[in-house]
């Protein structure tokens, strides 16, 4: 799995072996390598904020035991949030949330036949007691930003970064407003 992900990791952070880097605070997992094009956008955001994270393939259906091991060890390994992307009958975020006390953010990945509505409904309709914070279809950017906000609540330097990110975004919009007005 790590071998298949290596080119992606390298594109995100050339020359850095994630397994040797800082202890990951965010776990980003996905059901299949076919989810990577969607998920790597969020990974790029985590990288941009300098958040130590891990990226891997964990399938609820094809590697159920790996999923159990991943979810059960996540808190103990120091993760503070998990982002889980999946398509179709997207059980991964919900099943992981059922086995960890950590916050889990689900990314519904758009599949080929039902436009991602299948994934969205699978992830968002969690039964009472096991929450999964669900972002919009294919929106791994918001999943990463939400994970960062979760970290920011207890890490002041990350809070400051998030405030700066929001100010920058506002500034960019206001520049466009200024151009339209003139
Ligand atoms: C899900 O099935 C994955 O998350 C993926 O979105 C979907 C299709 O997987 P592949 O058949 O492309 O591996 O488990």
From TrEMBL:
This is Phosphoribosylaminoimidazole carboxylase. The lineage of its organism: Eukaryota, Fungi, Fungi incertae sedis, Mucoromycota, Mucoromycotina. In the C-terminal section; belongs to the AIR carboxylase family. Class I subfamily.
């Amino acid at each position: 799995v790590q071998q298949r992900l290596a080119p992606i990791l390298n594109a995100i952070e050339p020359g850095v072996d994630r397994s040797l880097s800082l202890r990951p605070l965010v776990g980003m997992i996905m059901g299949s390598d076919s989810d990577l094009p969607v998920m790597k956008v969020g990974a790029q955001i985590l990288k941009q904020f300098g958040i130590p994270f891990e990226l891997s393939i964990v399938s609820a259906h094809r590697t159920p035991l790996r999923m159990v091991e991943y979810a059960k060890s996540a808190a103990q390994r120091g993760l503070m949030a998990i982002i889980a992307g999946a398509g179709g009958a997207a059980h991964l975020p919900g099943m992981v949330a059922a086995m960890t006390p950590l916050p889990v953010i689900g990314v519904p990945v758009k599949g080929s036949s039902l436009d991602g509505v299948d994934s969205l409904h699978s992830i968002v309709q969690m039964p009472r007691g096991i929450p999964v914070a669900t972002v919009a279809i294919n929106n791994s950017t918001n999943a990463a930003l939400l994970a960062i906000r979760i970290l920011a609540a207890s890490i002041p330097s990350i809070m400051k970064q998030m405030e700066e990110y929001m100010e920058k975004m506002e500034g960019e919009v206001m520049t466009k407003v200024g151009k339209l007005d003139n």
